[in-house]
Amino acid sequence: MRKAVLVTGASSGVGLALCKRLLEEDHELHLCLACRNRSKAEAVRAALLASRPLAEVSIVQVDVSDLQSVFRASRELKQRFQRLDYVYLNAGIMPNPQLNIKALFSGLFSRKVIHMFSTAEGLLTQEDKITADGLQEVFETNVFGHFILIQELAPLLCHSDSPSQLIWTSSRNARKSNFCLEDIQHSRGQEPYSSSKYAVDLLSVAVNRNFNSRGLYSSVVCPGTMVTNMTCGILPPFVWTLLMPIIWLVWLFHQKPESLNPLTKYLSATTGFGSNYVMTQKMDLDEDTAEKFYQSLLELEKHVRATIQKRNHQS
Ligand SMILES: NC(=O)c1ccc[n+]([C@@H]2O[C@H](COP(=O)([O-])OP(=O)(O)OC[C@H]3O[C@@H](n4cnc5c(N)ncnc54)[C@H](OP(=O)(O)O)[C@@H]3O)[C@@H](O)[C@H]2O)c1
Predict the structure, then answer these.
(1) 123 φ, ψ to 5°?
(2) Cα dist from 64 to 47, 89, 194, 285, whole Å
């Protein structure tokens, strides 16, 4: 039977590159592109099928920053699929990133220079806003919309006979210091992106704790630094080209891979000579915090569902 794979944010950047690679690995996949923009998704579908005609490539329209859209897409997926083998939770935003020039220059001449370039720590702030669901946009897009998607898709993901896998696109920018259990949406801070990626790491750990017994496993990955629409919002492409050799050096000098466990993050890396490899990194978190965060998400889910139901009744 064909393996079924769902990829959110498949219309560009990391998601698009991932779809091409997945079809190289298995020509007969059923790949479902979960995109908010149907015409972009149609163009991607046509391009993928042109090079891999044996594959089945379908589209589901979903805006993960809009819960009604997530519910609608989940219903559609449950009608179309018996099961999903892999779900790549990749769609993400970093809105209006601002480079902190002062931090950049002081970092350049400090001992933290490699760390600063590899994690962007202290370098980037963003402007967040509130969505129609009344949530912080970065949190809803990068975390909560995906959380609701997997809650809704549980019947397609939880099978005791053969496991399914969730793979979250996290980031090296996920930092404990930017996350707070009392403000999970990061409404009071200036680094919502970093907070949301740390939240993704926590959520993956909590999913393993709560779902492994039901046949669902979760991992987090960091794609490395890639020149995509997102990174071009921070610096122009030519600056990234100049920075790349520095970033390669960072990857070259990193820690050795550790044994596979749910508290490990997988990082795509490239050597200075251009060969790619995967390395692992233990995440800076503990399982208790992950569980508390998961419980906060369940609470928020109840609240948001009640609000949406009330709104639907009134209209
Ligand atoms: N680039 C890097 O160096 C880097 C490093 C670490 C982690 N990441 C992560 O990699 C993931 C992909 O980012 P990228 O670099 O490939 O950026 P990108 O080219 O901007 O791609 C982002 C993707 O997410 C989709 N998306 C955004 N908001 C959405 C929403 N509300 N609903 C549905 N889809 C939505 C976009 O759709 P549209 O085409 O419609 O905009 C696009 O397909 C993100 O989670 C990002 O945090 C990237």
Answers:
(1) -90, -30
(2) 24, 10, 18, 26
**Side chain identity at residue 132, one-letter code:** A
Transcribe 231-256 into DSSP letters: HHTTS-HHHHHHHHHHHHHHHHTPPP
Tokens of 14: 């990391």
Contact between residue 70 and residue 145 where contact means Cβ atoms under 8 Å apart: yes
Please choose from 72, 172, 226, 230 the residue to mutate so as to test ligand 1's pocket, defined by most ligand atoms within 8 A of CB: 230
Q: What is the pLDDT of residues 41-91, one digit of tens each?
A: 999 999 999 999 989 999 999 999 999 999 999 999 999 999 999 999 999
pLDDT digits (tens, 9 = 90+) for 151-210: 999 999 998 788 899 999 999 889 999 999 999 999 998 899 999 999 999 999 999 999
The identity of residue 206, as a single letter, is A
pLDDT at 238 over 80: no
* 160 exposure class (CB count in 10 Å sphere: 0-12, 13-18, 19+): exposed
**Can you read off the two tokens belonging to residue 109?**
């001449």
Q: Which residues of 84-102 are buried (b: 16+ CB within 10 A; e: fewer)?
A: bbbbbbbbbbbeebeeeee
When pLDDT is cut at 50, 70 and 90, the band that residue 299 belongs to is: very high
Give the mutation target among 12, 16, 60, 140 for probing the ligand 1 site: most ligand atoms within 8 A of CB. Answer: 12
Per-residue confidence band for 273, with pLDDT thresholds at 50, 70 and 90: low
Q: Determine whether 193 is an active site residue.
A: yes
Q: Whose CA is nearest to atom 17 of ligand 1?
A: 230
